Amino acid sequence: MRAHVVPIGNSKGIRIPRAVLDLCHIRHAVNLEVQGQTIILRPVTRRPRAGWETALKKMHAEGHDRLLINDRIDLDLGSWEW
Question: What is the DSSP string of 6-65?
Fold first, then answer.
């Protein structure tokens, strides 16, 4: 399959047909790797912050979301300048 390189702002890119994206399970992002003169795209299957909302709600319910250091510590330092 041939794809044309097109300008995208100050960069260039290619349009990947929807069928190819579906076939490769590419949804949100890809990992891009260069080997010699070959560009390899792999789908990112893991979302970095997936599950954080549930985990943070659990932390709050269990009281594990308190500050470890008093947030006034910087204000108490007389030599601090903005």
Answer: EEETTEEE-PPPHHHHHHTT--S-EEEEEETTEEEEEE--S-TTTTHHHHHHHHHHTT--
